[in-house]
């Protein structure tokens, strides 16, 4: 057997080499981080300039995308920060070896050429990716190593605070007034959009023989159905758009991320080889979808309620640092716990955020309230900006995107048809019972506000092992860029054009609360019993909401917050021994919060 | 030539495999994160309980270490979350290949056993570490993969906010009153401690023939000289210890991290093969040390001042979200920029923090002040807790620590001798001019407060390629655990025992400001001209501080903040055109801030 190790031409020391390599990698890491952070600074400054001079045709996310594109272009065409790497082909030294799967680690033995008596050194290599042998050039891999970062960072670090913040800063009153319509959009709408996109694309790609499986296109349909709340939120807030429309659009885009991710996972884990539709399997998938969604919802809510109980029953509010830390940690746990038990963290963290705002917020010290609000606001702003910038960069730099213009063209058509196909009929249906009706111009605006953003990109970027998935990833990126720039940029104009009430056209007491934190807080701790300004209690409308409202006011709020009436007032006498335990001194004293 | 690819025994799809592998890794990642976050929750809750019941013998960091040890023990002995990984030996397919260094990536070709006509798949492997062939067992590597995370995360993500917060929340008045003594401790003290530890250990290990190079021991001396501010800070704050002692101990431990890191890097990059001391090289190293330290200091301060100018000259304070984001981003840039230009980020971020507190803080909106304070407080608390927990876990789990009890024993002796050797003579020297003198019992307390923490661990953990470095890493961990538990736990007792004034024994106006943020803020925006309570202006003492004070009051403050007098008042007439540009409307109006 031949000497099975790599020979090195120059004398060297392992210690020295490790030091040098660690330093080179560190410099590269910091350089990449510095680039992104510097871009974020430029973004913040330009965002301020635009706000200051009331320039409204490009918004933060659009701006961020453009900067990202510019940077990606520079990296690609000026070879900035190219990491000089070497790759060699290897084979197992044990030629009879047979494994079930590719190994996770390789060990490579190295010796200096001249000194065969020198101590040999082993190097440990970790599997990073697999690809079909002829599909990729070496150069591309070289560049990719500099800027690609693991999708794990998206899902575990960047997305949770964004989604949590959506739940935590939800304007409760307007949201709950439109809860029925929002849920219809979220569940029916997203599913229809996913199916229509998938089927349309399947027909189109079959005609042109582009070789996509139906299941792949359905996955694309699911992930591209996640609309993005960021840009629309900023435009609508700034123009102070009529609050019902605001609630519909924002509610839909905040919640359908969760539906899209569960849908994508469900379809993705569906048997990979099927092109015939098996009704049983379909039913199973639907049930699985419902199970995952509602279990995640429940889990997130339970974690939120647990935090509320904990802050109520302990005096941790005396130590605002500990209280704030606990709040942040528990909110993050809701996400991680759901992921570990194979549910969907995004759904859990969203509903955890809603519960934290509804219950825990009332128990916290004045200081922690302000801190947590601002903390998540800043973190989610920075995460969003980072993701949008990264999307822009990835257009030029990522090695896992493959452009296919016909497919992109078909996809653009399909997603807008799919969106129109569910918005108009659904609005017509909802208008049968809903008061006030959703006017025609509102419906147009809802269709127009179907921007795609971070979640769609994250889902597409997660798995790009095959060529088709790489096409899907590139298409998603293009759609995000185009909708954010085009629809985002024209939102102002569209609002004017469609004659949608905004700003001073809306009677004052009916208008959207301003976004300064004082106003938000006031709204949040306001008792829910306040009748809405239109004079009717929205909860009177339907049976289920009314039931929930009573349950919330008589059981959940007394149990989880310091609000009065306490459990001692609302529960039957035989439960009093237990009820007493959950009644705080402040509730005993009878003072309202 | 033989068929040079790996054979797989079962049919499989690349797409499917990538999906499965990504999922498995994701579950592992979230599980590890969940474990750490859950432990942090338990830590916060126990910390609250201890505070609530005034139990003082174990402090947060000690507690966190103990939890970390417990978790590490569980992971090790119950094999929790063991990642089933496979490793195979490989050799280059090109047998004549010769390289200068081990390759960064390996490509492994894979085919199914039966179907030689199937499309072949390549897998890409990345270099993670090197080790001498016979030094490590396979099992240890398996376990290590689950919990070890890259030192990059320590240095780029976890440490900067901790150090920034130390600078940002520094009690300026007490700090500057003792600046001379603190700097003496930091520069002379740390250097002496490093040399004494290194020489003592060199003598001891030579006697017992343990085979350490002098340079390795000097590196150890440097990294172990970084004392930890966390535990002492919490004990001293809680007991409201006499403020001069507080400033001395806290100032030393906050600043000597920076010196230790520069010292370690300087010695580490010193020629690797020398055991004879070359005077020229030594001088070069000393000059390099000074260059790196002061350039970093300057760079951090410049970034801080730039932020101040920016917040002063723009109206970004109207948008508190953007303002806060900008503040956070700039603070982080000071760190990254220093690292990229090969200076020391920790020094830069520390002095950036001090500048931000001294200048920028005054320009910000009320809301941003509170937010940034709380933000860094929370982030640094969580980062610290995480690091201490991780140190505990690493004792049982890390594959890069090698225990050597005699060395540990010698090291324990050496570090305390080294600390005593510089504290007592230095205090005697300082007492020649210093008023009030540093009393004998204060000197004992300073020696006793030499706890080791996060920075020492991070430096030791960074490079563990050789066996000696692994011994040093294990020894550092042991020293951190012992000093935090023993010295940290007995600090209260020691303060009583030595008869150091604390709590109500100190006249009220002379006592430490309470740590609620309102108090802190008031202190921070207080004009520096206030004479200290002892009736003498501390700046009268020496020539250099007085010069700096004048420069600060007449140029820096008017330039960088809205404080009065403005540049128009303090600068000579010929500079007025420029001075006017840097004078804000608020300064024009003549109102004090």
From TrEMBL, chains A, B:
Its main location: membrane. The keyword Transmembrane applies. GO terms for molecular function: potassium:proton antiporter activity; sodium:proton antiporter activity. PANTHER family: SODIUM/HYDROGEN EXCHANGER, SODIUM_HYDROGEN EXCHANGER. Keywords: Antiport, Cell membrane, Endosome, Ion transport, Membrane, Sodium, Sodium transport, Transmembrane, Transmembrane helix, Transport. This is Sodium/hydrogen exchanger. Pfam families: Na_H_Exchanger. The chain crosses the membrane at residues 31-50, 62-78, 153-170, 182-205, 217-236, 289-310, 330-354, 375-399, 405-430, 471-490. It is found in: Cell membrane; Recycling endosome membrane. GO terms for cellular component: plasma membrane; recycling endosome membrane. The lineage of its organism: Eukaryota, Metazoa, Ecdysozoa, Nematoda, Chromadorea. It is a multi-pass membrane protein. It comes from Mesorhabditis belari. GO terms for biological process: regulation of intracellular pH; sodium ion import across plasma membrane. Residues 146-494 form the Cation/H+ exchanger transmembrane domain. Belongs to the monovalent cation:proton antiporter 1 (CPA1) transporter (TC 2.A.36) family.
């Amino acid at each position: 057997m031949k000497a099975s190790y790599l020979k090195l031409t120059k004398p060297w020391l392992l210690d020295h080499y490790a030091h040098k390599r660690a330093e080179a990698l560190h410099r590269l890491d910091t350089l990449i981080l510095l680039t992104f952070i510097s871009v974020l600074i430029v973004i913040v400054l330009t965002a301020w300039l635009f706000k200051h001079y009331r320039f409204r045709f490009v918004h933060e996310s659009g701006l961020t995308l453009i900067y990202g594109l510019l940077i990606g272009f520079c990296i690609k065409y000026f070879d900035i920060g190219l990491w000089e790497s070497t790759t060699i082909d290897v084979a197992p030294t044990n030629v009879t070896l047979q494994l079930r799967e590719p190994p996770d680690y390789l060990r490579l033995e190295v010796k200096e050429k001249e000194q065969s008596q020198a101590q040999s050194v082993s190097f440990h290599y970790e599997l990073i990716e697999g690809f079909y042998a002829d599909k990729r050039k070496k150069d591309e891999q070289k560049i990719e190593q500099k800027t690609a970062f693991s999708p794990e960072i998206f899902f575990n670090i960047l997305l949770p605070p964004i989604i949590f913040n959506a739940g935590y800063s939800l304007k409760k009153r307007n949201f709950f007034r439109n809860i029925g319509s929002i849920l219809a959009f979220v569940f029916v709408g997203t599913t229809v959009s996913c199916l229509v996109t998938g089927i349309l694309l399947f027909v189109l790609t079959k005609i042109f023989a582009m070789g996509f499986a139906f299941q792949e296109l359905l996955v694309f349909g699911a992930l591209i159905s996640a609309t993005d709340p960021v840009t629309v939120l900023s435009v609508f807030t700034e123009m102070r758009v009529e609050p019902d429309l605001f609630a519909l659009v924002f509610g839909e885009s905040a919640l359908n991320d969760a539906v899209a991710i569960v849908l994508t996972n469900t379809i993705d884990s569906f048997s990979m080889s099927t092109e015939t539709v098996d009704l049983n399997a379909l039913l199973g998938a639907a049930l699985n979808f419902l199970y995952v969604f509602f279990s995640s919802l429940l889990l997130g809510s339970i974690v939120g309620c647990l935090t509320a109980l904990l802050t109520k029953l302990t005096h941790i509010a005396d130590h605002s640092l500990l209280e704030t830390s606990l709040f942040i940690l528990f909110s993050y746990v809701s996400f991680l716990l759901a992921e570990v038990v194979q549910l969907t963290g995004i759904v859990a963290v969203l509903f955890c955020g809603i519960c934290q705002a509804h219950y825990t917020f009332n128990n916290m010290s004045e200081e922690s309230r302000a801190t947590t609000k601002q903390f998540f606001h800043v973190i989610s702003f920075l995460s969003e900006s980072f993701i949008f910038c990264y999307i822009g960069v990835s257009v030029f730099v990522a090695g896992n995107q493959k452009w296919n213009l016909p497919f992109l063209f078909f996809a653009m058509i399909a997603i807008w048809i799919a969106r129109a196909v569910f918005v108009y009929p659904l609005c017509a249906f909802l208008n049968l019972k809903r008061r006030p009706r959703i006017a025609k111009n509102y419906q147009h605006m809802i269709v127009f506000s179907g921007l795609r953003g971070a979640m769609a990109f994250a889902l597409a970027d997660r798995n790009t092992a095959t060529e088709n998935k790489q096409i899907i990833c590139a298409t998603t990126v293009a759609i995000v860029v185009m909708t954010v720039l085009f629809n985002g940029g024209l939102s102002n104009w569209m609002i004017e054009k469609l004659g949608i009430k905004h700003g001073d056209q809306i009677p004052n007491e009916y208008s959207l609360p301003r976004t300064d934190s004082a106003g938000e807080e006031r709204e949040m701790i306001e008792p829910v019993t306040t009748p809405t300004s239109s004079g009717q209690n929205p909860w009177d409308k339907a049976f289920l909401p009314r039931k929930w409202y009573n349950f919330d006011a008589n059981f959940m709020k007394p149990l989880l917050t310091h609000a009065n009436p306490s459990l001692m007032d609302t529960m039957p006498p035989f439960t009093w021994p237990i009820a007493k335990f959950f009644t705080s001194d402040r509730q005993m004293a009878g003072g309202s919060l």
